[in-house]
Amino acid sequence: MREDSVTAVDDRLLELRADCGRCFGLCCVALPFTRSADFAIDKPAGKPCQNLQADSRCGIHTQLRQKGFSGCTVYDCFGAGQQVSQVTFGGQDWHTGSRERARQMFDVFPVVRQLHELLWYLNEALTLPAARPIHADIRRALAETERLTSQSPQELGELDVNAHRQQVNPLLLRTSELARAGVGRGKKKERRGADLMGARLKGADLRGANLRGAYLIAADLTGADLRGADLIGADLRDTDLTDADLTDAFFLTQPQLNAARGSAGTRLPRSVTRPGHWTQ
Questions:
Q1: Which of 12, 33, 218 has the alpha carbon at shortest distance from 120?
Q2: Do 244 and 266 form a contact (C-beta atoms < 8 A)?
Q3: Predicted confidence (pLDDT) per residue in 100-145, tens digit
Q4: Predicted TM-score of the model (pTM)
């Protein structure tokens, strides 16, 4: 892939990051959460979080983990918040509009969030040279997904986003097969949907592994080699990635990484950033 094309895709990935300054705190209102280790309180969908201020900013943003809201620190909307706030609703704040408009915004937000997550995967697929044979198909799927995000609030509210996801998934699966071909393949590398909770995988050779949807909660992946692994949908909550090598691992998102533990020695793909709470 040409360097200028890669740069263009990287720029699009940057646009798919949350920009809370251009959002009206939608994730703090539209989404529900239940009192747990991740959230200190119960909150139904459509009700503002008690920590949300009048300016749509979080009043305890710098103390979320200490205050019992670690779940907020691992959430990312893939830029859906600013898309819905500034584009879909043209900068109209849910605070000042009708109840109907607020309800529409809250209904549309999770739909756009799913579409933006797909945009993340499709854009990343275009950065993988091995997937070049299907880049044209990926671009068509990307264009259609972008078109869907630009629809009216009513159209987005009626969209069957799961049906669209099912149309995109075969392309992502084929991308994975092409990208992992010849990279440390073997029966032990086929871990799709595997229950690896708490697994002791310190120093494991997982190059080119298929870890799609794998449950890696609290697994020990210290020093593991995950180069070229497919991590789409893998549950990395409390996974220890200290000194692990995730260079060229793909379909890894910032929310997954934020939920894991790591260190300054953890090597990451360029599409994500090192979480601030990791050991420095």
A1: 12
A2: yes
A3: 999 999 999 999 999 999 999 999 999 999 999 999 999 999 999 9
A4: 0.90
Tokens matching residue 213: 């949807």
> Which of 205, 267, 214, 276 lies closest to 241, judged by CA?
267
Tokens found for residue 152: 């009216």
- Spatial CA neighbour of 208 closest among 233, 223, 194, 187: 187
Cβ–Cβ under 8 Å, residues 256 and 232: no
Which residue(s) pair with 225 in the sheet?
205, 245
- Residue type at 139? R
What is d(CA 216, CA 250) in angstroms, rounded to the nearest whole number?
16
CB 221 within 8 Å of CB 239: yes
The string of DSSP codes covering 83-124 is IIIIIITTT--TTTS-HHHHHHHHHHHHHHHHHHHHHHHHHH
The torsion angle over the Cα atoms of residues 147, 151, 156 and 158, rounded to 10 degrees, is -100
Identify the helix (H) or strand (E) that includes residue 158: helix 153-158
